[in-house]
Structures are given as C-alpha cells and as structure tokens.
Amino acid sequence: MGAFSPEMRERAENLLTLYPQRRSALIPLCHLAQEQAGHLTSPLMEEIAELTGVTPAEVYGTASFYDMLHTEPVGKFLVGVCTNVACLLQGGGELLEHAEASLGVAAGGTTEDEMFTLEEVECVAHCDKAPAVQVNYRFFGPLTGESFDDLIAKLRAGDYDGVVPPHGTLIRVMRENGIEVPLDEVLAERKEMDRAKAERKAAAEAAKEGN
Amino acid sequence: MEQANQVPKIVTSRIGLEESWGIKTYLATGGYTALRKALTTMTPEQVADEVSKSNLLGRGGAGFEVGRKWSMLKPAPVRYLVVNGDESEPATFKDHMLIENDPHQIVEGTLISAYAVGAARAFIFVRGEFALGLERLQAAVNEAYAHGAIGRNIFGSGFSVDLVVHPGAGAYICGEETALLESLEGKRGFPRIKPPYFPAVIGLYGEPTIVNNVESMSNIPWIVNNGGASFAALGVGRSTGTRIFALAGHVNRPGNYEVEMAKLTFRDLVERPEYGGGMRLGRQVKAFIPGGVSAPWFGPDQLDIPLSQDDVAKAGSMLGSGSIVMMDDHTCMVRAAWRIAKFFWRESCGQCTPCREGSGWIEKMMRRIEQGAGREADLDLLMDACDNISPGVAWPPQQTTICVLGPSIPSSVASAIRMFRDEFLVHIKEGGCPYE
User: Fold this and answer.
1) Which chain B residues in 192-221 lie under 8 Å from chain A, judged by CB atoms?
2) How confident is the model at residue B173, as a pLDDT?
3) In angstroms, what separates the C-alpha of A180 from chain B's closest C-alpha?
4) Closest by alpha carbon to B307, among B222, B212, B241?
5) Are residues B78 and B227 located together in one domain of the fold?
6) pTM, two decimal places
7) B90 vs A84, A93, A186: nearest CB
8) Tell me, what CATH number does B364's domain have?
9) How do residues A23-44 score in pLDDT, each as one tens digit?
10) For residue range B178-192, what is the model confidence (pLDDT) as tens digits?
11) Contact assessment for residue B270 and residue B305, using Cβ atoms and an 8 Å cutoff
12) Would you say residue B435 lies in a domain?
C-alpha cells in the first residue's frame, strides 16, 4: 500500500505520461499530494520520488523552494492577505493586522482548531479589487475588517463549501485525455514539415535567380 | 476620443460575455477560424511572416518582438513552445483575467504558434495560485481536443500537436523564462546563465524552445485573421496593435483597459471617465509606477508621456508588464518603496550574492527608516547597496546577477530616494512615519 490512495496513484500516473521527462510531473504530483493529505508528508514525498525518478531529498529540496508547497501541516483554509503595493495603497497592511488580531495568530500561524492558516502573500493579481484576500486560492476583495470577519465566519460555517474548494490546486483540473500523438510520430511529421519548408525555400530562391 | 470607438478590442473582445470561457461562446464569436485558416491555407513561414509584419512586441515585460524571437529558434529535430502564464509582477492582473475569461483564445494562439515554429509539444505554464484559471484553461483544452483543434491531424490538415497545461507552485522568479523552464522540468526555479542558455538555443530539456507570454499568444488569432499589416496599422512606430494596461492604486476605477498602443498618455488613462475616472477623492498624483514594480517611478510631470514602449524607455523607465500604479499625495513613499523592497527580498531565488544579500540589506534599512530608527547616513548606504546590485543605478540597468530580478530591486528604492529625499529625512528626524 503506497502513500497515495489508489485513485490518486492513478491520477499521478496519468500526469506522468504528459511529459517527455517524468521529473516534469514533480510539482503537479506535489499538488496532488497536498490535495490528499493537506501537506507533503514524508511517505508521499518518497512515493513522488519513486514516480519521478529522483531522490526524496530532491523532492523536498524542490518543494521547499515554492510558497504553495507545504512540508508542515496547515489549516483547512489557507487565508492569504495581500500586502503588496496595490493592496498596501488600499489598506492591505491594516487588513493583515486586523486578520492577525481577529484570528489570534501571527502571519504564518495556524489557528488552534486547525481551520485557518494565515499568510501574508505577495501580489495575487486581483489588484482592481484591493485589498484582496485569497482563501485556498479563491479570491475575495475589496475587503474591510468587517467583511473579512464575515468571510471567516462563513468559511467556518461551511457556507462557502461550493465556492472555496478544499486545499489543493488541481482538485478540479482534470484532463480528459492523455497525449494523443506519441512524440516519435510528431517528430516524423515535423521532419516532413521541415523538408517541405526547405523545398519551398529552395524553389523561391531559384525563382528569384531565374528573374 | 474621436477614434476611440474604431479601435478593435483584439484580446478582450469576449470579456464580460456569458460563459466567455466556454467553447460555445468561443465558437459563436469566431473562435478557431484563425487556426483553421493557418493550418489549411498557410505555410508555417507565412504565419510567422504575418506575425513579423504585425511587429507584435512580447507582452510579458521585456517587449521583444515575437516574430524576431521565433526567427531566432535554432533549427533542430525537437523544438518546444512554452507559454508563460506565471503572471506575478506586483499590480499586474491582465493575464489572470485572460486565463480565467478567455482561455480558448490562448489555446488557439498557442496552437497557431506551435504550427509556425514547428513545436513538438506545447506547454502552458500557469501560475499555481490561479486555481480557477487552471480549471477553466484545462476545461478549454479538453473541449478543444473534443472539437478536433488539438491532437492528431488537426482539422484534417496533417498537423498534429499535443498541449499540456502545467501548474506552477508559487514563485515570482518562475516568470523569468529560464527559471520557468527549470520549474517545468521539476526543479527549483533557478534562472539559467545566458549565454549559453538562451531558450531559443538551449531551452526545455536542452532543446530549442520558444517562450511567449499569455497576452502575446492571445493576439495571434486576430493577427492571422486580419493580417499583420492591420495590426501594425494600429499604434505608433514600434508600439503596434493594442495592449492591456492594468491600472491600480488610487484611481476611481482600477481595472484592465485594452487601448491602442502609443495613442493615449498616462494622464488619459488615469483621468478619462471610461478608464481610471480620475484620482480617488479628487486628490493629486504624487508619483506613479509605469510598468510593474521593477520599473523606476515617474512623477506628475511625466503624466503626458504616451503609452509607448519607446517613449517610456526614453524617459528612463519601462512599460514592462503593462501595470500602472497610481499613488496620491497622501501616500507614504518610504512605506511603498519598503514594501516593494520586501517583495524582492522574499522572491530572490538566492543564487546570486548581490540580489540575495542586497535585497535583505535594503529591506532592513527601509524598514528601520519607516519605523523611526533610521539614520541620515542610511540614505547613502541604501544607494551604495543599490549600486552594488546594479552599478550606476541607471536605466536601462547594469547587471551583476544571472537574471534581471537583481537590477529590478533598486528601481523603487532609488526612485523614492531621488524623488522624495525630504520625506525620508522627515522619517529620520521625527523618528517615525508622518503619515500614521
């Protein structure tokens, strides 16, 4: 029995087939692992290593580079308050202070009930609705202290269950098919295209010289 | 104004339509006709020719001609096309909108480009945080396969290609094209050294690769349908076509506005009722960032510069990612520049010492000035740190690092010090921020 559930293992194996080199699937597989377990556990990283042909240390070393990949447990909802310049100008800094007081944790911390992990995030490209907040990578804004508290209350009550999916970016990103044209077939086609192109070029040059 | 209504919406025509992201709306509004035209009536060189004629400048930030980039692709049996949808430049939110609201247009542009450059496979790299965008783009790709627009023998043309949607995982640096390729290979997003790693020569998996931005790709279907000359007829000089400007900060109507290149000025965009609608609360412009936080700032005197790549460059900054941030006269410039410095410090990949250490020093000094513990000597020290990252602290910047993240760090801090030195001195003398 692997760390991935059978369903996840199947999705992981499908993802591997999309890339000419299997290490390319490393980050998508990390997203899958987070979808299953909330964060990257050691057994999951070991299984990703086995699937992508690298060592578990390389999986950890790669994952630790990226803000979205967590090697420690996080809350059910990742709440990110943007304080970058567009949000800062509209009160993003004050909103983060409010969020810290309201949730009772500093940025980076998780509430005791493990419902919310608060993060100070960089620009989430929602700047026309600043100050913006992301919850499991769904975007809200512009928010005031009051509407932030309201959002948290609704999340806690489950009112946003249809809108804000559980943690994990790929949860609703499903490819319906695999690669339809094997690479060697495409390459044979390209060889033919290149040959035809060279012929056209030679013909055009011959015509020019003929003039 | 007289012309405004005749300028076509090239990339935002479907924004606001019902289910603008679905294939039904896309097909009803001329979707996939350009792909059919390119694959069944044009040679790859003819497609590339039209794109060259259009003089489409890359919409990611560097503004390099797309056609010229394609022509630099090294001939090799295996070539790849990678589309950069990792939009993370602060205050830039145009690609986010395009990915969520018109993903088919990106897919169609990508497929046409794959044909033009002979790509063996195409990848669209989407910023991981764009969860809804990833869903809609993957759904669009599924629909396009079912429609026969991707896969084997597309529209009976004999051309086959697969397209893979790839999620990022949260790292600004992956917008840099060689870091993006590293990330797509399943590694940390460390930019590669150029030369030799110019993607057109040594790119994805070591093979020649074209990396183009999402908005650039979104222009391709229109160019194929209408011809490169029609695109080049819009705009002025090298700045052709239309472009989305992401207007943010202290304006009444922040948003994405597609306008003809080089015809309007910053002032037009900020003040006209159909765009920014003026500054919030009727306040005055104190300064603005003309092209993403990597760009040096402009002051109110520069509001009449046209939105053209060359004019902005001549004035000492860049249009960059097309993001414009307006700051009114109630803004603390120290705090704004500090936050931008903090961003670069957090996002430095850590490979090069000037960027990794310099960004941290600058962030610490800016923080202590904002929080009231600054010293007058800090101003020279800040400029010295900037100079060590980018000698001369000029524009276009000199570089001591592998990629351009390093020389982007001094832009805001040096602008703030040069334009608002008095404000720094007030912070230092009064022992705190006068705006709080």
Assistant:
1) 205
2) 97
3) 5
4) B241
5) yes
6) 0.97
7) A84
8) 1.20.1440.230
9) 999 999 999 999 999 999 999 9
10) 999 999 999 999 999
11) no
12) no
Q: Cα separation of B220 and B226, whole Å? A: 10
User: Is residue A5 scored above 60 in pLDDT?
Assistant: yes
Question: Per the CB < 8 Å rule, is A65 touching B205?
Answer: no
- Beta carbon pairs, A and B, within 8 Å: 212
Residues B50 and B152 in one domain: yes
Same domain, yes or no: B148 and B21 = yes
Residue with tokens 């194996």: A13
**What is residue A57's three-state secondary structure?**
helix
Summarize chain B as % helix, strand, coil (round to 5).
45, 15, 40
What is the number of domains present in chain B? Answer: 3
Specify the fold of A77-171: Glutaredoxin (3.40.30)
B122 bridge partner residues: B81, B163
pLDDT value, residue A166: 85
Residue B389, domain member (yes or no): yes
pLDDT of residue A1: 58
User: In this complex, which of B134, B170, B184 lies closest to A24 when CB atoms are compared?
Assistant: B184
Same domain, B112 and B218: yes
Closest approach of A145 to chain B, Cα-based (Å): 18
| Nearest alpha-carbon partner for B370 in B394, B335, B403 | B335
Contact B343/A126, CB-based, under 8 Å? no
Residue A2 banded pLDDT, cuts 50, 70, 90: confident
The complex scores an ipTM of 0.97
Q: Check: CATH 1.10.10.1590 for A6-63?
A: yes
Quick check: A172 and B185 CB within 8 A? Answer: no
Q: Which parts of chain B have pLDDT scores under 50?
A: 1-4
Six token digits for residue B187: 């590694």
